[in-house]
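so my prof wants the structure for this chain in the tokens format not the other one, which i didnt know existed until like an hour ago. anyway here's the sequence
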Amino acid sequence: MCLGIPMQIRGIEGYVARCEAKGIERDVNLFMMQEEELAVDDFVVVHVGYAIQKITPQEAQTAWELYDQMLAAG
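here's what i got, hopefully its the right format
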């Protein structure tokens, strides 16, 4: 099973974004989204260190609610 993690962009330098989710920060590669307009505070889905899709804040919130429910049930 593959899992994409919604993260918020906190800073961008070239093809690398500093992203945050639930207090954890990571450097994320933006190369696969070079055609997309991305800015600080945008949300992206991150899979194995790469941003693969831009999403809305509501989509990010919904995903985290589902992940939290799965973790609570597990």
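also thought this was worth mentioning. DSSP finds one helix and five strands in the chain.
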